[in-house]
Amino acid sequence: MGSGASISKNDSLPSDVPGKSPSCICCEDYILSRGSEVVVPRQDVLEALTVAVESSKVDGPILLVAKSGAGKSTALAQFVSKICSPDDTQLHVLSVYVGSVDRSTIPVFFLRDVVDRLNNIVKSVCGLESFLMDNIESIDDVLVLSNLMYQCADAIQSSGKNRLILIFDALNELDASGLSLTWLPMRLPKGCQYIFSTIDPDSVEPGSPSFAPTRDVFKVLEQRWKFGTENIIHLNPMTRIARETLLQKLATPLIISSETCDLILKKADQSPLFLKLVAHGLKRLPQNADIIDAVKTFPGSVAGFFDFIVLSLEEKIGRKSAEILLGTVWSVAGDILLSQLKKMVSIELTPEAESLLKNLLQKR
After folding, report:
1. Residue 21 in this model has a pLDDT that exceeds 70
2. Exposed / middle / buried, residue 152 (Cβ in 10 Å: 0-12, 13-18, 19+)
């Protein structure tokens, strides 16, 4: 169908956060950033998204909803990969992966990136060299940036038959200042389309820290855009066969026996994120370990598994060092990369301890 904006490959990913995206990326960078992850295609969602963006009957934004850890971001990456083709230069796809990197939960920071990349499309693809100012990074007013985003989108769709898809992934991760979504233009020019994703608030425990922002952003989405049934796509749970296939791929080079697989798939949480954590736990087991007995001790939820990893980290580097490391992560609300953390604290990490900490940070 289309290709991504022609953005420099110098916009590379942090080497210590595999699978994480910059805050705003063109479609081919998005494919590269997610391409190393082990995935099982979600054909039902891919088809639903493709039909929605191609159908003249679907007006307004598209909303992808799922439980936490169900694979929304991966499904969107598969969708981008599917619709983008180097032979079609008229479709431009940019994605904001909220919460992926430092300060990417704050609209003013990622909107600068969005406007800058849209500005590059206007200049290079549409040939409007002097369309916008060059000092976009100095703008700190979200409403100004929002207006510039609309102007860029309008210029892109006005130049021939160009189309634009703007993806805002994981809106539930937004900082409190962005949950009102007033930084997003209510409507985009014809030929331009939004795709949003967020966690289903009904799937979040009312007492959990994530409940209020998840509920609030979902309520705002419904109030601002009044989605019809054709505009909302639900990411359904994976089938058992798909979960088993994903687990086997994630655990490679280990070979998971059918008995072990049955034990894992009987755990309470069956999200792709949980299976990824389980595979990580299996790979860390000593060679002579009894895998069946080990799996029986594995927690049954994502939250429980994170606690499990924290305890393992304490065993590797000591409780005091672990408290310093994790206290530093907590003090910056998780917005820190492993490379940054290592510069801030003077603690030597073994390769295994570093792997544990990396796993915690990249899925914070």
Report:
1. no
2. buried
Taking residues 75-89, what's their average pLDDT?
82
Sort 103 into a burial class: Cβ within 10 Å, 0-12 / 13-18 / 19+: exposed
User: If residue 65 lies in a helix (H) or strand (E), which one and from where to where?
Assistant: strand 62-66
The end-to-end CA distance of the chain, in Å, is 34
- Could you tell me where the DSSP H helices lie in 18-173? 27-34, 43-54, 72-83, 107-124, 142-158
| Residue 163 DSSP symbol | E
pLDDT tens digit sequence for 272-314: 888 988 988 898 888 888 999 999 999 888 888 888 878 887 8
Q: Give the distance between the most distant pair of CA atoms in the chain.
A: 66
Residue 336 reports pLDDT greater than 90: no
Contact (Cβ atoms closer than 8 angstroms) between residue 114 and residue 166: yes
Closest alpha carbon to 30 in 121, 119, 93 = 93
For the beta carbon of residue 105, count every other beta carbon within 10 angstroms: 23
- The neighbour count for residue 270, using CB atoms within 10 Å, is 19
- Strands in 163-169's sheet, in edge-to-edge order, are 24-26, 91-97, 163-169, 192-199, 62-66, 232-234
Q: pLDDT tens digits, residue range 110-141?
A: 898 899 888 888 887 767 665 666 678 888 89
